[in-house]
Amino acid sequence: MNRDTNQDLESSRSRESSEETHPFGADLLRVKLCGSESGLVRNLPGFVKGRHKEPSEVNGYHGRWIKEIATDLLRQELDAVASRLKKLLKFKRTDIVHASVEGGAGELATRHFDYIIELDQNPRDPRGYVVKRTLENFSGSPEVLSRPDFDACFVSAFHSVVLPLCGSLRVEDVIDRIEAIDDPSLIEVDYDSSDLSRCVVKLPEFQGDIVVTSKELQIRSLSASSPSVLLSLLRNCYAKIAGSAEASLN
């Protein structure tokens, strides 16, 4: 995205954004949803069987080639997302600020959020590739994140959600609060006594874990989930960690 376009977008978002202050300085609009999946290079649309060969090693040359033959795949995904936004969220031409695919990365920048997709060679399998998806830079009302029509645009695409904290959270306080509950059927915590910079929270209803540091909360799911599922888990965990009703994320 060029500098002028980026500045115009940020200015627009600043006017539209409703700043919500929560304990530890958390703001639901600052969340970042992330997901990834892997596949075989031979299944990419630009791979021509009989002419191309699967890579036999991981290196920069093969990585650049994989990105090149994946261009159509990235473009098709961005087009599909844009189409669903127009159909389900009634996006207009002016709502989509910028769309591009270059060097193994695609970006769909809107007035309300950014959708980014990146593809590269799988570092653990030379014959494979990895796609990473990110949804970030939200503006406006956080209610849009839980709308069914928004969910339908990105269903089962994400594995984690990260909530940055503007303030400072004492990890020790989180550990003490959970240990005081002393009920694994509700919540439990794991940590290294020699390093209290982070802890891992477990909720019985969630297949995954929640990593807590002084600067962020990260929900990591074992399976791909929709935005509303991950955000519901985030709200639940945030309330339990804060330990008070006024600490809920709205």
Main traits of this protein?
250 residues, 6 helices
Précis, in short:
Helices cover 30% and strands 30% of the residues. By secondary structure, it is an alpha+beta fold.
How would you characterize the overall build of this protein?
This protein has 250 residues and is of the alpha+beta class. The chain has six helices and ten strands, in the order αβααββββαβαββββα. Strands 2-3-4-5-1-6-10-9-8-7 form a ten-stranded antiparallel β-sheet. The longest helix has 18 residues, at 71-88. The radius of gyration is 20 Å and the shape is globular.
Taking all Cα atoms into account, the compactness measure Rg is 20 Å
Q: Give the total of beta strands.
A: 10
Strand order, biggest sheet?
2-3-4-5-1-6-10-9-8-7
Main structural class = alpha+beta
Question: Per the principal axes of the C-alpha atoms, what is the gross shape?
Answer: globular
Write the layout of secondary structure elements.
Layout: H1 3-16, E1 32-40, H2 60-69, H3 71-88, E2 96-102, E3 105-110, E4 114-121, E5 128-136, H4 148-153, E6 158-164, H5 171-181, E7 188-192, E8 195-202, E9 208-213, E10 216-225, H6 227-242
Antiparallel strand pairs: 1-5, 1-6, 2-3, 3-4, 4-5, 6-10, 7-8, 8-9, 9-10
